């Protein structure tokens, strides 16, 4: 019974790992898009600054820049949580594999090994 339960647990962990890896990919894509937006915004700020720093367009663009920087921080925090979750899944998977190996070994030991 322990072998079957452990096999099911390994499958659940594998599914969870795939979900977290998908989340990491989505975050990575969002960060790339965010970087692209930052580069475009820097160009726009530079162009608007040509008209003087008191240009209201510069202030509007600077506000957008702050929003993008905040989004970057949120994405970084989310990425850190995903990486932490992935590490815990990997640790639990290693433990479950060791338990499975023990269950298999004890099942094939003469007399059941118990």
Structure write-up:
With 114 residues, the protein is an all-alpha fold. The protein has one domain. The protein is 88% helix and 0% strand. The protein has 2 helices and no strands. The longest helix has 52 residues, at 56-107. The chain starts with a helix and ends in a 7-residue tail after the last helix. The model has no long low-confidence stretch (mean pLDDT 90).
Strand content: under 5%
Instruction: Please write the string of helix (H) and strand (E) elements.
Output: HH
Determine the fraction of residues in helical runs and give it as a percent range. Answer: over 70%
- Low-pLDDT sequence parts: none
Reported for the largest beta sheet, the result is: none
The total count of strands amounts to 0
Please tell me the total number of domains: 1
If helices are DSSP runs of H or I spanning 4 or more residues, what is the number of helices? 2
Tell me the structural class. Answer: mainly alpha
Overall mean confidence score, pLDDT: 90
Task: Name its key features.
114 residues; 2 helices; mainly alpha
In short:
This protein is mostly helical and 114 residues long. The chain is built from 2 helices and no strands.
List the helices and strands and how they pair.
Blueprint: H1 2-49, H2 56-107
């Amino acid at each position: 019974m322990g072998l079957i339960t452990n096999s099911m647990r390994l499958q659940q962990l594998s599914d969870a790992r795939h979900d977290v890896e998908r989340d990491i990919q989505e975050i990575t894509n969002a960060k790339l898009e965010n970087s692209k937006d930052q580069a475009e915004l820097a160009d726009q700020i530079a162009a608007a600054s040509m008209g003087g720093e008191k240009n209201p367009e510069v202030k509007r663009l600077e506000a957008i820049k702050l929003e993008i920087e905040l989004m970057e921080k949120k994405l970084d925090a989310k990425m850190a949580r995903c990486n932490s979750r992935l590490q815990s899944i990997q640790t639990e998977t290693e433990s479950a594999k060791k338990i499975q190996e023990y269950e298999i070994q004890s099942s094939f030991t003469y007399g059941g090994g118990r």
